[in-house]
């Protein structure tokens, strides 16, 4: 799948979130699609950072995202994996998962920036 198609899918997902009042900044593409190693079996891996997740358990965060993930998967027929984070978690968590996420690509409906995301600047 080419970069334009990935961008289109992520833009759709972000726009659906924003329609429901969930502002996210940044959205980070990580994993095989960000490194150019995706295969036909690969899913799209993204992390989304939002102030709306502050004080919410992960189960509630996934509940907030669920219908938007389903809508995106149904429209584009590709597996889609989303990790919801607060800015604090993004900035402070020390884990291999966060190393992958921080090394990803910032995605936004209007721009793509191939750099390390910094939610503190958002």
Automatic annotation (TrEMBL):
GO MF annotations, alphabetized: nucleotidyltransferase activity
Occurrences of domain Polymerase nucleotidyl transferase (ranges): 17-94
CDD domains listed in its UniProt record: NT_KNTase_like
Alphabetical list of Pfam families matching this protein: NTP_transf_2
Listed name of the protein: Polymerase nucleotidyl transferase domain-containing protein
């Amino acid at each position: 799948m080419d970069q334009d198609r990935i961008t289109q899918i992520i833009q759709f997902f972000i726009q659906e979130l924003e329609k429901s009042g969930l502002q996210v900044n940044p959205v980070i593409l990580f994993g095989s699609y960000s490194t150019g190693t995706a295969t036909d079996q690969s899913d799209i891996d993204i992390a989304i950072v939002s102030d709306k997740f502050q004080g919410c358990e992960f189960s509630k965060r996934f509940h907030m995202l669920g219908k938007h993930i389903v809508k995106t998967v149904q429209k584009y027929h590709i597996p889609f994996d989303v990790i919801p984070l607060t800015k604090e978690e993004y900035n402070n968590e020390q884990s291999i998962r966060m190393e992958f996420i921080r090394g990803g690509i910032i995605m936004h409906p209007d721009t793509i920036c191939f750099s390390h995301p910094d939610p503190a600047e958002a």
